[in-house]
C-alpha cells in the first residue's frame, strides 16, 4: 500500500510513519510534503497514492486550498490538533480524521476502515464540498463559534510547577526532539507539546509559525532582513544563537501577519 504524508511538522510526520509501519510493515510511504505549494506540484506530477494523510494547517495556509488547485484522486485521512467545528465535514467527505496526538488505536481503526471500504473496489476520489467545509472552518468569525485558544501553559520549574501566561511567552523552538518555551524575561522551560500542536492551540493573531523550528509572539520580533532567494532572516528578543530563516513561500504571509 502506497501512502503519502502531507505534514509540515517533522516530528509528527516521523511519528506517523513509524506508527503506520507498526500497523503494517508492508506499507510504503511515498514521501512527506510540507506545504500546499509542494503538495500541488506533487499531485500534478506523480501517480495517485492509495491513501493520503493530510494535516489541516500547513506552513503556507489551510490545506483545503490543495483541492481548489489540483484534482486529488485518492482518499484522505485528515489529521487535526483539536476536535472542533469541522469534524463532521471530515467524516462525511473523507475516510476519517485523526485527532493529534494520534494514538495507535485510532490509527489502526482508521486504517481498518479504509481497508474495509476499499477492499473490493478501487478507491474513488474524495468528493469534497468546499463551500460546506470552508464555511465550517470559518465559523470562528462568528460570536457563536469563537475558538478557544490557550492562554496559559503549565511548566516545570525545578521541583515546582508554575503557570506561564501566553502574554509572557516570546517564542517556542524545537531542538533535538524537545520543544522549549522562552519567556520575554529569557527563562526557558520544556513543554510537552509539538510545534504542530502548539500552532493549533495558540491565537494566530499573536503567534506565527516562522519555520519548522520556531513559533514566535508578535512582540518578540525584533528585526527582519531580506535574505537569499526571497527569504527573510528574523531576529527575535530575547536573542538566540539559532538562525531563523523564513522561506520564500511563507514570507508574504509573515509580512501580512506583522502588518495586521
UniProtKB/TrEMBL annotation:
Keywords on record: Phosphoprotein
SMART domains: LytTR (SM00850), REC (SM00448)
HTH LytTR-type domain sequence ranges: 153-260
Keyword Membrane among record annotations: no
Location of 4-aspartylphosphate modifications: 55
InterPro entries xrefs: CheY-like_superfamily (IPR011006), LytR-like (IPR046947), LytTR_DNA-bd_dom (IPR007492), Sig_transdc_resp-reg_receiver (IPR001789)
Domain Response regulatory: 2-115
Coiled coil regions, renumbered to chain: none
Record-linked PANTHER family: STAGE 0 SPORULATION PROTEIN A HOMOLOG (PTHR37299:SF1), TRANSCRIPTIONAL REGULATOR-RELATED (PTHR37299)
Name of the protein: Response regulator transcription factor
Record organism: Rufibacter sediminis
High-level lineage: Bacteria, Pseudomonadati, Bacteroidota, Cytophagia, Cytophagales
